[in-house]
Design goal:
single chain; 340 residues; TIM Barrel; two-stranded antiparallel ribbon; 12 helices; 15% strand; binds 2-O-methyl-1,6-di-O-phosphono-D-mannitol; glycolysis
């Protein structure tokens, strides 16, 4: 492993900083835009994402941005590519390199993430365009009799092969095994499945020779299913998540950056804050605990923008408010006074 992988991974989880996930694929961004009554077009995607990336002062809270393929080649109003413009601001460009979660043959209701074919060449091209970290998301669904061993292991294997290819290309892999919140399962079930998934992922990473010092983990929190009648409170989510991670994530990993997974934006902030406060009470954690939120950083900004150029400043203000709150939470220094 070269030193730069380690230094990039550490820079991405520098104190007070976290990551903006803005890598929605075409169908997902279309769904987000539809929620505010806006049709997805190349120009509106460029403009909306530029609004977030170029928000004045964002680099105080945001260390990196995960982009979708299209965005890496799009340009600011001033004509620079987004990776160039972000580099000048001290923000690191990341790129989603999986090609999506597809139905797992023979396993109804389960998915396996694809995208390994040709990945070596794509990584080299993304490096040339300025990407220094990458992301691959595996999706694990909890339900009757699932996940299956086949699903957990196939996804862990793909994540590990992706991560090894990234490191070969001098790109930091962000490894995202997401256990979905969908369903009426309780927090115990989420804990058990998350532990299982993480164990399989780290076994596969070791097998493929991935240097843990040069990667980041992007997991779900240990949380009740959306439909659970007795959803666990903030302190319980924090305690269960920290305990699960302590059991399953080696200390050599520099940082754990959570996904928000459909939590409300304030909920995602409160959970992160509670975990960092708990970590401090426990005398410190082996890894940095930060955020790589998509919806929890963007929901308010998307609404404030509403697809209108006139609302650009309002969209940026809403984004910065969430970025600032999560930056505080990432240090265990958030409280409700951050919430306007
Ligand atoms: C931003 O959404 C990402 C892309 O999703 P699709 O591939 O389905 O379009 C997604 O991978 C995201 O990076 C993570 O799930 C974290 O986002 P949330 O919204 O869960 O924080």
């Amino acid at each position: 492993m070269t030193e730069s992988l380690e230094s990039i991974a550490n820079a991405l989880v520098a104190p007070g900083k976290g990551i903006l996930a803005a890598d929605e694929s075409f169908p997902t961004i279309a769904k987000r835009f539809a929620s505010i009554g806006v049709e997805s077009s190349e120009e509106l995607r460029r403009s909306y994402r530029g609004m977030l990336f170029m928000a004045d002062g964002a680099s105080e809270f945001i260390s990196g941005v995960i982009m979708f393929d299209e965005t890496v080649s799009q340009k600011t109003d001033a004509g620079e590519t987004y990776p160039e413009a972000l580099k000048e601001l001290g923000i690191i460009t990341g790129i989603k390199v999986d090609t999506g979660a597809k139905a797992l043959a023979g396993h109804a209701g389960e998915k396996v993430t694809e995208g390994l074919d040709g990945l070596r060449d794509r990584l080299a091209a993304y490096y040339d365009k300025g990407a220094r970290f990458a992301k691959w998301r595996a999706v694990i669904t909890i339900g009757d009799g699932i996940p299956s061993n086949a699903c957990v292991r196939a996804n862990a294997h793909a994540l590990a092969r992706y991560a090894a290819l990234c490191q070969e290309a001098n790109i930091v892999p962000m490894v995202e095994p997401e256990v979905l919140m969908d369903g009426d399962h309780d927090i115990d079930r989420c804990d058990a499945v998350t532990s299982w998934a993480l164990q399989e992922v780290f076994t596969a990473l070791r097998e493929q020779g991935v240097a843990l010092e040069g990667m980041l983990l992007k997991p779900n929190m240990v949380i009740s299913g959306k439909g659970d009648a007795n959803r666990a409170d903030v302190q319980t989510v924090a305690a269960r998540t920290v305990a699960c991670l302590r059991r399953n994530v080696p200390a050599a990993v520099p940082g754990i950056v959570f996904l928000s997974g459909g939590q409300s934006d304030v909920e995602a902030t409160a959970h992160l804050d509670a975990m960092n406060k708990l970590g401090a009470e426990q005398g410190g954690l082996p890894w940095q605990l930060s955020f790589s939120y998509g919806r929890a950083l963007q929901a308010a900004a998307l609404k404030a923008w509403g697809g209108k150029a006139d609302n650009y400043a309002a969209g940026q203000a809403a984004f910065l408010e969430r970025a600032k709150a999560n930056s505080a939470a990432r240090n265990g220094r958030w409280d409700t006074s951050f919430e306007g």
